[in-house]
Description:
It is a single chain. This protein is an alpha+beta fold and 257 residues long. It has two domains: 3-83 and 218-256, no CATH class; 90-213, no CATH class. The protein is 29% helix and 30% strand. It is built from four helices and 19 strands. A hairpin with a 5-residue loop joins strand 7 (124-125) and strand 8. Helix 1 packs antiparallel against helix 4 (219-256). The longest helix has 38 residues, at 219-256. The model is unreliable at 43-72 (pLDDT under 50).
Amino acid sequence: MSGIQSLISAGRAYEKTLESSSNNLTNASTTGYKGDQPVFREVLSKATRVAPESDEELFQPHEYLDLYVGMDKSSVVIESVGKNFSEGPIRATDNPFDLAIEKEGFFTISTPQGDRYTRGGQFSLNHNGEIVTKDGFQVLGRQGPIKIEGTDVKVDANGGVHVDGQFVDSLNVVEFRNPHNLQKLGKSMFAPMGSDNVPIPAKEAVIKQGMIEESNVSTVKEMVNMINGNRVYEQIQKAMTSMDRLDEKAISISRLT
């Protein structure tokens, strides 16, 4: 793999890093937001963008690989953009319809596209007295949409909703065996990818009323990533320009000879 191809692959990787950091910074104040986390992989093969297959390619050092597969340069490719599901800080709001989840779990939301899942618990009541998201989607209990007919609303740690001392329903708080296979949809919403990644009742989730979970993005870390990423990207561009000039000189010399 030529040097210019390695630089191009590195440039693409840093472009994705900058894109992810930019998106994270944009959503640093979004309730329940989970940061993007790019995952990169080094390709150790002479063929461009062909992943290593054999045990030798996977585990042998570069000095051996250079002889074994005839490789002169390595390449970095984007494996995936993962999600950072670490808990964000919980902030008190004193709004009885703001809810936060401690430990693993998601609120179930009814949308025109089907059920969606979120940790963004900034809720309110609509004109029908139903608990809804900021976009007006119904928050689901185990029996369906939760309707409030009363004034004193209490939500216990297990998600049970009580109105004027009477039990109404329990929030349908779920978890997934493989949360990293959830698709990110925007507005802090997720949907499972694949029929095997089905929601199951959250076992350890603790509901906190009058609180919300903030974004888990570290603005300082993302700013550092942006600064470093921009610097490296500029160096890659300069290196590509230098290599291009060397190629031009080599072509000129070959013509003279």
